[in-house]
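MOLECULE: protein
FOLLOWS: sequence and fold
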Amino acid sequence: MEEHVQLAAGDALAAMVGLFDRIDSARAGVDAATRLEWVRLARTVHQRAGALAAVLTGEAERAQASERVTGTPMASWLSRGETLSRREASGAVAQAKALTAHPEVGQAAVDGRLGAGQVRSITRVLDGLAAQLDATQQVAAEQVLIGLAGHLDAEQLARSAGTVLAQVVPATANELLETRLQREHEAAWRDRSLRFHFEGASVRFDGSLPRLEAESWLAQLDAHAEAARRTRLNSREAATEFATQEQRRADAFIAMLGACEKAKPVTGVGGATVIVKLDYKQLLADAAGAGAVGEGHQLSAGELRRVCCDAELIPMVLGSASEVLDVGRAHRLVTPPIRTALIVRDEGCAFPGCGVRPSLCEAHHIVPWWADGETSLSNLVLLCHTHHGLVEPAKFGLRDQWQVEIAGDGLPQFIPPRRSGPDRRPLRRQRGAPVVASASAAG
């Protein structure tokens, strides 16, 4: 068996630079499959090289290499030698420090087991948990997160603190999670801000809102934007069909401001919808991470009890007698209980690799209504506008397209078109990490 000869970092990097200089730029005759393969390879090289650059930067910063050689801080040295702004250089050094503080994460990134986004999420979760874990537990948490990265993307890893605590400190996981969520909410409330900048005929604004309150605002904006989009499509207003999502949200915000001028505030109107995935009685006592808003953002027990005062509370037990999850052929449109069940099951657009939030998704009939398909959970899937068009079957089946089905475990999976090759193995979107719950809730 041939052994791999270890190279010094400088020798390996010099060889890589030399290989880049030898890349043939004539690629006009390359077939589509090869192009996609090259994209994957290039992205792998980019991620691993970026991880190595961050590790080397962190090691140089720790050794005070730039101060010893040039008498300047590492950020200044970076900005002088490259086309980096001072802010970009400072950000690169900060990222490098975070990576070198967690050596196993850094090595996994260099080995190609972690992407850049996953690294950022893991280091943030670890830093957030550091005050609650001792040194041995922090090492265990690092290993758990690296393992989770094998099947969770960056956004899902960012929400995995509860899963990490459940594995590292199972006896006190709920208490620690509740403490962490409460501290995060208090910090978000302290950091709230709203700034306006007058620029000619425009007013630019930025700021920060606590996640719970911001999600309620975003849900209302998206609801207004979606209603306006459907109205434009129905009226065939071609001039407004090409507005970006940011422009549609701006239009929705303007419409909301106009409505506020004409309406008086009514207590409870426009409140959040909270989906509780455990017994309601437990909500009153021990519910850390039981409630969620937006794209899986967990609520502390205090936040959850507070918002429930004015919220539409939905005890979410799929298939319970209190929720009608199957309306058969009686109704074509999806009922609110069924849509709630879809949001809990699919968590947004279910297409592999997509992350569009539920409020911007449509309920797709897998077997179409015109083909006697039922409006039931087993025949529905949440899809964004783009991916809805990919799987919506033509009435005469003339095109080679993606197909969707509900698997035996009740989750949607997607079968690639025939043109993708002989291996049409069903694919699924990665789902979010489970939240920690007490033994009574899990049972």
The chain has 18 helices and ten strands.
